[in-house]
Amino acid sequence: MHVIIDLCVVPIGVGVSVSKYVAACQTILHKHNLAHTMHAYGTNIEGDWDTVMTAIKECHQTIHDMGAPRITTTIKLGTRTDRPQSMQDKIDSVNTKLSAD
Amino acid sequence: MHVIIDLCVVPIGVGVSVSKYVAACQTILHKHNLAHTMHAYGTNIEGDWDTVMTAIKECHQTIHDMGAPRITTTIKLGTRTDRPQSMQDKIDSVNTKLSAD
Amino acid sequence: MHVIIDLCVVPIGVGVSVSKYVAACQTILHKHNLAHTMHAYGTNIEGDWDTVMTAIKECHQTIHDMGAPRITTTIKLGTRTDRPQSMQDKIDSVNTKLSAD
Amino acid sequence: MHVIIDLCVVPIGVGVSVSKYVAACQTILHKHNLAHTMHAYGTNIEGDWDTVMTAIKECHQTIHDMGAPRITTTIKLGTRTDRPQSMQDKIDSVNTKLSAD
């Protein structure tokens, strides 16, 4: 099952700066060869359900190993069976509607 | 790794009423013996990471099989390594602060 | 416009325990006479759009005043025009489907 | 109060394609002169709290007026008092950590 995810991992109890933990996550996504694009409030990820979920679990384990005692993560997750759709397809679909106006 | 999750599954393309799909999810959580409590905008779930994730995947597969062509799901997901914490512990912790006022 | 919301406020940079900040939010919701129910990963709130949003803004201001330098909040927010629906209606609707099986 | 938001609006009961509703939202954000960047699972928005919230309310009203009987929206929302931070600052901060490895 193909999935498009938006992942936002927030380590708690390590102070106000969390970017090094987010960077560690990016490295894990890259290692799993998952297509991913970071934005200002999370990272879009696309791939096979099990691979994506394995990577997210590894993010939690790694961030705990880096010293964060607590993590709260927000995930948006989309699947569809009617047709294949990539992350870029979703963006193109809205842009087409915009330029049609 | 123990996880506390808030799960909100939204089938798209099946009209305005989604309760039968949410009910199917509840049945799957029950089958996996996962502690879970439904609220007005999702379901709290507690358990082993892999069991919880297996159940969520099964929710998506079942809802697609029921005829929903598209699903968007929102998940909040917490892990901690400093101490064990149940769903009830989290609620008790806030209530203690409230009654202390 | 009537809205049902799930609110989860996470102060960052104040250590691992966040319950006193969540308790302060509960007090603000109560002050605004908003129907609200806490669960293990947030609080369901129901009411007029503007009142709810005013209360959420006050939560952020209060938590910053309590010393949290950074806050990340997750909100799920539902509106509908086809029929009135309360928080309890949503739960009842799923439970009816469950007991029908 | 300055806020960085990730907004994901999902109309329910209008079939499987939701891009024209998302496009209507983009137009509203543009009209309010809010800095915003669309990604594959939402839109990052940056600006004054009240202006952003006014725009989001207008998105809901417009999408209902376009015929959607039900909308479920997911919002991530960040404020900080320790220092100013733009959407681009957040991305740069992670990228700096990545290139330092």
Give the spatial strand order of the biggest sheet of chain A: 2-3-1-4
CATH topology of chain A: Alpha-Beta Plaits
Indicate the multimeric state: homotetramer
* Beta-strand proportion of chain A: 25-35%
At the first level of CATH, the class of chain A is Alpha Beta
Distance between termini of chain A?
Answer: 35 Å
Largest sheet: number of strands, sense, barrel closure of chain A? 4 strands, antiparallel
- Mean pLDDT across the residues of chain A is 95
The low-pLDDT segments of chain A are none
CATH architecture of chain A: 2-Layer Sandwich
Task: Describe the model.
4 copies of one chain form a homotetramer. Chain A is α+β, with helices and mostly antiparallel strands and 101 residues long. The first copy, chain A, has a single domain, classed as 2-Layer Sandwich (Alpha-Beta Plaits), CATH 3.30.70. Chain A contains 3 helices and 4 strands; from the N terminus they run E-H-E-E-H-E-H. A 4-stranded antiparallel β-sheet of chain A has the order 2-3-1-4, covered by helices on one side. The model of chain A has no long low-confidence stretch (mean pLDDT 95). Chains in contact: A-B, A-C, A-D, B-C, B-D, C-D.
Briefly summarize what is shown.
4 copies of one chain form a homotetramer. Chain A is 44% helix and 34% strand.
